[in-house]
Amino acid sequence: MNTQQSRLGAEHYLAGMRAALADLPASEVAEIMEDVEAHVTEVAAELGEDETLEQRLGTPEAYAQELRTAAGYPARTEVIAKPNKLPALSKPRIAAWLLGGATAFTLIAGTALLREAGVLLLPAAALAISYVLVREHGPEQRPMMQLPEVLKLGELLNQPAETPAGRAIAYLRSLQPAWWLLRTVLLVVAAVLLTSRDLFAFLIIAALAALAFYAGPKSKTDRRWLWITLPASALAAATILQMIDVAADSMNYGRASNSYPVQVTEQYENIYPFDSNGKLLEGVLLFDQDGNAINAQRDYPCPGTEPMIPNNKYPRPKIDRSTGECLTIPPSAAVPPSASSPPSVSGTPSSAPPTSGSSAPSSPPASASPSPSK
Amino acid sequence: MDTSQLLKGVLDLAVLAVLRKEDGYGYDVLRRLRSGGLNDVGDASVYGTLRRLYNAGLLTSYVVPSEEGPHRKYYSINEPGRERLAESGKTWRSFASTLNGLLGEVA
């Protein structure tokens, strides 16, 4: 049994004891628990591989009963709803839910980290509020750990070792140090990817990476580190998701541009046809092999030219920004030097691929059936 | 005969006795009792007895921080505790010799 497991087992056991002693005066319970906590922790550390605290000490209730008898306390009197003395909206509860919520939000919103790092300000604020609410409870954070929902969670994560779930959890626990390292690496990667765009976010995430590395082993004994380790884990996990997303995107893009080159045309802003003498042709209508108009992306329409000339009539007139006139502005350096070469790609429509005969539609509109659409 | 029944009556005495020479925290007292031969003594009984003796004003306690794990609460015997130990010790010895005498007749 590793220390993490035994610690959780001990906590569970102690919680059971506290419940069984809840009818005694609080100061006396505190004194008893001071003794018993040391005892149970020590016994838990001595346990063998398959031993449980219950096997060694009996159930928490039996332990409490034996202690009561020996100490001469009155037998258990039923105290109604004593464990629920916390109001529904106590500070530890708000803090716990804020912590959980901020972690969940970080996991979801963190997937947009590289696009918009500012989304993390919200969970950061929630974490700050949450921490301030329970700061006074020190490293153990006992009031929060004893919320029914937190105890329930602890139970879920502390399955008996012989069940498949217990084995799976034990296996995952054994990977924990590796995760601490991976988490730091992921956060550093995220921080580095952000350097060029958002220096502030870079600094914050780099600091988080360093803190998370330091906090991993610490959080087992000092719960206050949870306010760092939980969101750090969520952010690291979100970074993985985002990397998968980015990788998938670039793969899709690569495939698309290979198999449908014609779609790329739509990214042109304008098209400048030249004849074999290097003279710019105007009013050229472009169609593809199916007789559909080839329409470049439309932007900066010229005022006053509506109803518009056919969409596929090139080159399109553009506003000359210096004069405000609507003119056909030829690409400045794109005039082909000789009859056979296509317009140089270094001109204004700099992203245009070569428009040599092989890649252009072979039949001009004259020989194709359709008439230019309106 | 079930020694646990006997133990109940004399656990006070046993706990005071092991604290006579040296202070100890709960688990420490438990170990000393076990190594002294009281193998059947229950963990919770020892802790309960310590609380009872403390509440009766026969023990004092102080806390020693521990590097790993929760801190330890040490118990030490005070003057009333020593008096009680001497008194109960006397009672036990006379009781034991009486019983020995009875058993001697039987055996």
From TrEMBL, chain A:
Region Disordered, residue ranges: 297-374
Residue stretches spanning the membrane: 94-111, 117-134, 177-194, 200-216, 225-244
Keyword annotations: Membrane, Transmembrane, Transmembrane helix
Keyword Secreted part of the UniProt annotation: no
Annotated Low complexity bias: 330-374
Pfam families: HAAS
Protein name: Proline-rich protein
From TrEMBL, chain B:
Domain of life: Bacteria
Annotated protein name in UniProt: PadR family transcriptional regulator
All copies of domain Transcription regulator PadR N-terminal, residue ranges: 15-87
